[in-house]
Description:
The structure holds two protein chains of two kinds. By secondary structure, chain A is α/β, with parallel strands linked by helices.
Amino acid sequence: xxxxxxxxxxxxxxxLAAAEPLSxxxxxxxxxxxxxxxxxxxxxxxxDWSERGVAFRLVFPDRDLDEETLRRHxxxxxxxAPFVLDRNRALVKRAGATTTPEAVVFDAEGxxxxxxxxxxxxxxxxxxxxxxxxxxxxxxxEAAAAGRKPAISETVPIGCLIED
Amino acid sequence: MKKLASLLLLAAPFxxxxxxxxxRDIAPIVYANCAGCxxxxxxxxxxxxxxxxxxxRAKTISLVVNDRYMPPWHANPETTHFxxxxxxxxxxxxxxxxxxxxxxxxxxxxxxxSFPTFTEGWQLGEPDLVLTxxxxxxxxxxxxxxxxxxxxxxxxxxxxxxxxxELRPAARSVVHHSLYFLxxxxxxxxxxxxxxxxxxxxxxxxxxxxxxxxxPGATPRKLPADLALPLxxxxxxxLATHFHPSGKAEREQTTVxxxxxxxxxSRKLESIQVPxxxxxxxxxxxxxxxxxxxxxxxFTLPVDVEAWFVSxxxxxxxxxxxxxxxxxxxxxxxxxxxxxxxxxxxxxYYFAEPVVLxxxxxxxxxxxxxxxxxxxxxxxxxxxxxxxxxxxxxxxxSITLSGVALDLADATKLNLSNKxxxxxxxxxxxxxxxxxxxxxxxxxxxxxLDANGDGLLQESELxxxxxxxxxxxxDGNGDKxxxxxxxxxxxxxxxxxxxGRGT
Lengths: 164, 503
């Protein structure tokens, strides 16, 4: 209720509300250390952007994962966004995702606006900055929400590869 | 008949005999190189103990083994023969890739070797003394890496000799590594918990002797032969632990096991650092953007030495480390070649056989650094000038060769020569004291440092970063305290430096 009210308010103010609703699929794995390490930032992204009408979805492309184990994992890492078990890789194929963690932003027509890393914290496996300095996903969302094309629309994701 | 057989062979794209299967070809590689850590209860993030567990991560496995990110082993095993090597051969990597390309066939479970019997619990058996941190340290879900020192009071009633330390983390996913030190000054106890959390900060608590390290995956070892390190009564054990936040809050309460020697060692283990003092005094000063900065240092062995193990230390900018030994006959041996240094995996490398180096052998270390933005490990972007220091954004650089004088009678000579090598750092210290104008303000500085007002400067009262060098240079009677005459010697030394004569 509160969320809808806020969106209406933002739409009415003609401010930051998206001209078209955006959605984000975040490809994750319960056992990938880099995907796990991003949990707090993923939760903040979800809270910040769902207030602005962007639908976040946590996608787990894992044939062996059962829902109960997944729910325990989400609770343990404090993740509250909607989730989906992508056992047949349908969402992986739609997004062209290869890696966990990987973020893919869609516009209202389902066109891909951004695909890749959440930010530049990792530059290779085992190489990471103490703090991210380029917030690729947030910047892409800001641009798309304002009806612009993101300055960076694709980055090479770093993490664990999604099995065929 | 013969013709028919050849035709049949040609018809089959991959003859059955050469098909790569999990059970016959992949399981032996995984069991020997991965499963030690990748099994339940160990430090790796997921298990690799079965066909199902390996095949569902096959692409990631291929990525990390081709990249040499895994298994974590950074010393070149071809130039030097080490124990416990965790590095895949090129053929093994090719086999893994072939298996994936063939569609990850499982094969016949009867072909698989039996799963190795790993020792549960203490790898070195029941320790002589078990210590656990008094309180758990909270590691937050995210943020910078944390370097934290923890004090484990030993309260030993008598001097002991130590053969090994084994460490067991409580929260394996966040404990990246831990270095062991001894504190005989009591200073660590006074710092412990001052900020309201167990332990204290600071990367370089190095007043005491180094006793090795815990690195996930490394095989704990007791010192060879009857070698042992002194553990004086009254000393505290310090764990300098490096944490990686893991995405959820964790609580770490480390347990360590100590293994003692029954008798004092017959020979003293000598740690020869080249350059000495972790590279302090080696003039490390790396301009921003410099891609191939290099330091070199050498040390000539005064006596025959039997070397047992070797290790390196540097921070994030370091790229390569090389220690060579040029023997008196002109032949050269490589003692350590790390072509891709990684701070995250600071191993101690044990030689497969002790290496005998005759008197006159020249040990030479060459260490290179990349301070450009092309170095993905550069902690500062854009790069800045980096000098020697104890913060993770500073640099260090040294290679330590550990061994003994081959002839017992030469032990003292080796020890004195090693000490003198460390003392070369006085040149650097002297420059800093002179440039800092210490001479003109000496009485005021002494008064300020003398926290307990007894007119003496105890080790714990000396500035930490120059403590070792100051004591080495000035503490004539070896009581780890600078008394009035030793402070006077400092004044005289500073006078000499001011006149620009000697060090």
